[in-house]
Design goal:
By secondary structure, the chain is mainly α. Helix 1 packs antiparallel against helix 3.
């Protein structure tokens, strides 16, 4: 998967997060329902801020300019992440 394809996927994710897609709206309400710390207003604000600040074309372009990513390893690696489940 080349770099431009990855950037395009992240941009599409940001657009989806800003959309009024029914599945996305349902996921945000379920988050509020399942965890009282995730009030609907804050979930909405957080998702908009992430989409606009990190997943926009301008933000991603500025981010990747800082790195020389021309020589990407052709042998990708799988990485596992273990996270605590009790931290909101």
């Amino acid at each position: 998967m080349n770099l431009q394809y990855r950037v395009d996927l992240l941009i599409r994710l940001g657009e989806y997060m800003l959309s009024n897609d029914q599945e996305w709206e349902t996921a945000k309400s379920r988050a509020s329902y399942a965890n009282g710390w995730f009030s609907p207003e804050f979930v909405e604000q957080a998702s908009k801020n992430v989409a606009q600040s990190f997943l926009s074309t301008e933000a991603l372009s500025a981010f990747i300019k800082k790195y020389d990513l021309q020589d990407i390893n052709p042998f990708p690696k799988s990485v596992g992440i273990v996270m605590a489940g009790n931290i909101p």
